[in-house]
């Protein structure tokens, strides 16, 4: 199938725009790789420190320097369900490395925080910046320069983007990402959402709410809704950083362990010591990032990736813009219905055919670049295969299903759920914003209503509980951007706004904060930039101003007399309460240096 014209056009303009920065990046990683593995040239004392704690066999191999040495960078902790399974991975990886004459060492750990735990709490203000901390921790782990390739153990929201940014700083090294999979299905996501809304209305108590939440989030693995964590897994697979079919295999199963062993061997097969050297910085090119964005649209993935994919690409010298994402969305159909875009969870998606069907369908429609390098060693066509476990415990990849086993969850490009991916850039008087429409009914794609302005989600909740929110409304929640307070997710807004919408009111949200992949059924213009803390136009809005959020035409407009609007002063806010406590004082340099949302909201200057 010939590549679809828009896909080719957007890819070409990204490559042209990125020509100089990409060339400089590739020159840097070529310089780092051309002299061979750095560890071979370390001084004797350096080498001795690097293998002092190893067992006799690994120490002998590292002394001789002939076998490859594999770095493990892990986001393991046993508080997060998604990362708890990684506890046993280092032993598996070390044992697998020895079978092919190599060694493996845990090079370092990176932090992994959970947005689900910190929602509505002060800790959420560290969440987005944790991506930068993870990238920095990855660099520290690999700074010893004693490794020939790296496997990365990470899944959730900021962890995978941070690991990618860190990996690209060491782009001369091959890299394989190893997932741990989703937890098994528990209480359905729509039932959990129903109980949350009942709690917001005061119709059930905290005991009922906690019981529902615990029945939903009940075991090891990622949360089963299609938020940022599972979007990360989809993107790593469609970008060729995972082994085919490995993203959504449940934890602690024989197939999951066998995939980890196979990923280890694959990483060790592409080092500079062999004939198939595949440095990650060359692998992650413009075509691969476009494939990731296409996957984002086709699956209705997390809006957080409008930040992350821009920042990740920049680390490889590639300049992506929101216009690129929006233009691609116009030609990519929506193929999945996974909560919050439907009732199914990711286990249902995987059972229906999962990634192999998505990739097969997109390739057959010319919507993906098939001529890419992957960690599997072949082009993207090999990602239409899925792994099966042989009786001896080894893996065989077979052709995946030709079509979906459940068209209520997963469809082909001939009969998609929607003709487009449902992600749109909004432009207008209030700046630029992102809106995700895949979970929003058609009649709510345009909302025009009076503004109610708040400077925190707590203020809106208080107004709701006091019965002050009674009619059509565009809730404007500002001073939530990266410079203001780290750009927290604002999911505590969704239950009250959902209640108001269900009462028949026209409701929309406009904010310079985030909502991610679980934003739900209320139309939300998010990531507004310039943000209020930088004097953006959102800081000029007053209660009662009419605002039009139009996801059809891609506009966000303030319907105020032009002269009055121009003469208005921007409101300021005392943000000192957001600058201390829960470690926030340590992040002052991040808030001062961070760039705008449409440039990835990153502190790094690539």
Q: How would you describe what is shown here?
A:
- The chain has 606 residues and is an alpha/beta fold.
- It folds into 3 domains: 11-17 and 67-184 and 219-391, no CATH class; 185-218, no CATH class; 424-599, IlvD/EDD C-terminal domain-like (Glucose Oxidase, domain 1).
- Helices cover 37% and strands 13% of the residues.
- The protein has helices at 5-17, 19-33, 44-51, 56-64, 89-99, 115-118, 127-142, 159-169, 189-200, 206-216, 228-238, 254-268, 280-283, 286-299, 305-315, 322-329, 346-351, 354-364, 457-465, 482-485, 494-502, 562-567, 588-593, and strands at residues 69-74, 103-109, 149-153, 175-178, 385-389, 395-399, 423-428, 431-436, 446-454, 473-477, 507-511, 524-529, 546-550, 555-558.
- β1, α5 and β2 (103-109) form a beta-alpha-beta unit.
- The mean pLDDT is 94.
Which features would summarize this protein structure in a list?
606 residues, alpha/beta, Glucose Oxidase, domain 1, 3 domains, eight-stranded mixed beta sheet, 14 strands, 13% strand, globular
Architecture blueprint of SSEs:
Blueprint: H1 5-17, H2 19-33, H3 44-51, H4 56-64, E1 69-74, H5 89-99, E2 103-109, H6 115-118, H7 127-142, E3 149-153, H8 159-169, E4 175-178, H9 189-200, H10 206-216, H11 228-238, H12 254-268, H13 280-283, H14 286-299, H15 305-315, H16 322-329, H17 346-351, H18 354-364, E5 385-389, E6 395-399, E7 423-428, E8 431-436, E9 446-454, H19 457-465, E10 473-477, H20 482-485, H21 494-502, E11 507-511, E12 524-529, E13 546-550, E14 555-558, H22 562-567, H23 588-593
Parallel strand pairs: 1-2, 1-3, 3-4, 9-10, 10-11, 11-12
Antiparallel strand pairs: 5-6, 7-8, 8-12, 9-13, 13-14
């Amino acid at each position: 199938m010939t590549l679809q014209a828009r896909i080719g056009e957007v890819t070409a303009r990204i490559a042209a725009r990125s020509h100089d920065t990409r060339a400089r990046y590739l020159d840097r990683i070529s310089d780092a790789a051309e002299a061979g593995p750095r560890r071979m040239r370390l001084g004797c004392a350096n080498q001795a420190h690097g293998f002092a704690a190893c067992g006799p066999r690994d120490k002998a191999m590292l002394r001789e320097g002939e076998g490859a040495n594999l770095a493990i960078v892990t986001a393991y902790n046993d508080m997060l369900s998604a990362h708890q399974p990684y506890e046993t991975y280092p032993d598996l990886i070390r044992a697998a490395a020895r079978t092919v004459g190599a060694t493996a060492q845990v090079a370092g750990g990176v932090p992994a925080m959970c947005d689900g735990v910190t929602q509505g709490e002060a800790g959420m203000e560290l969440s987005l910046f944790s991506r930068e901390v993870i990238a920095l921790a990855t660099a520290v782990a690999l700074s010893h320069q004693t490794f020939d390739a790296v496997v990365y153990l990470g899944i959730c929201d900021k962890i995978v983007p941070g690991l990618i940014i860190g990996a690209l700083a060491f782009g001369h090294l091959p890299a394989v990402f190893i997932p741990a999979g989703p937890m098994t299905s528990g209480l359905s996501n729509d039932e959990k959402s129903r109980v949350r809304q009942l709690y917001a209305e005061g119709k059930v108590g905290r005991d009922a709410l906690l019981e529902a939440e615990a029945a939903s989030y009940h075991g090891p693995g990622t949360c089963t809704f299609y938020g940022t964590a599972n979007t990360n897994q989809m993107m790593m697979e469609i970008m060729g950083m995972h082994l085919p079919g490995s993203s959504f295999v449940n934890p602690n199963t024989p197939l999951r362990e066998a995939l980890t062993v196979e990923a280890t061997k694959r990483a060790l097969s592409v080092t500079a010591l062999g004939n198939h050297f595949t440095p990650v910085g060359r692998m992650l090119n413009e075509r691969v990032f476009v494939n990731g964005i296409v996957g984002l649209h086709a699956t209705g993935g997390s809006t957080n990736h409008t930040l992350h994919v821009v920042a990740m690409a920049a680390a490889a010298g590639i300049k992506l813009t929101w216009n690129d994402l929006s233009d691609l969305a116009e030609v990519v159909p929506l193929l999945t219905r996974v909560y919050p875009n439907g009732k199914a969870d990711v286990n249902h998606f995987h059972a229906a055919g999962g990634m192999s069907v998505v990739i097969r369908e997109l390739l057959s429609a010319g919507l993906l670049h098939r001529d890419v390098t992957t960690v599997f060693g072949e082009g993207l066509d090999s990602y239409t295969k899925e792994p099966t476990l042989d009786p001896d415990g080894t893996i065989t990849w077979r052709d995946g299903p030709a079509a979906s086993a459940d068209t209520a969850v997963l469809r082909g490009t001939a009969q998609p759920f929607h003709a487009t991916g449902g992600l749109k850039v909004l432009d207008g008087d209030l700046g630029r914003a992102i809106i995700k429409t895949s979970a929003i009914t058609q009649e709510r794609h345009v909302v025009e209503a009076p503004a109610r302005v708040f400077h925190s989600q707590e203020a809106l909740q208080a107004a709701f509980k006091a019965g002050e929110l009674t009619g059509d409304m565009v809730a404007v929640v500002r001073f939530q951007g990266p410079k203001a307070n780290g750009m927290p997710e604002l999911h505590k807004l969704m239950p009250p706004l959902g209640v108001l919408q269900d009462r028949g009111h026209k409701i929309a949200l406009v904010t310079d904060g985030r909502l991610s992949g679980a934003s739900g059924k209320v139309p939300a213009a998010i990531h507004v930039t310039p943000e209020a803390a930088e004097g953006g136009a959102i800081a000029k809005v007053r209660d009662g101003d009419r605002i039009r959020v139009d996801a059809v035409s891609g506009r966000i407009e303030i319907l105020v007399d032009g002269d009055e609007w121009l003469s208005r002063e921007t409101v300021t806010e005392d943000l000192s309460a957001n600058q201390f406590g829960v470690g926030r004082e340590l992040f002052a340099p991040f808030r001062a240096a961070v760039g705008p949302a449409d440039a990835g909201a990153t502190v790094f200057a690539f």
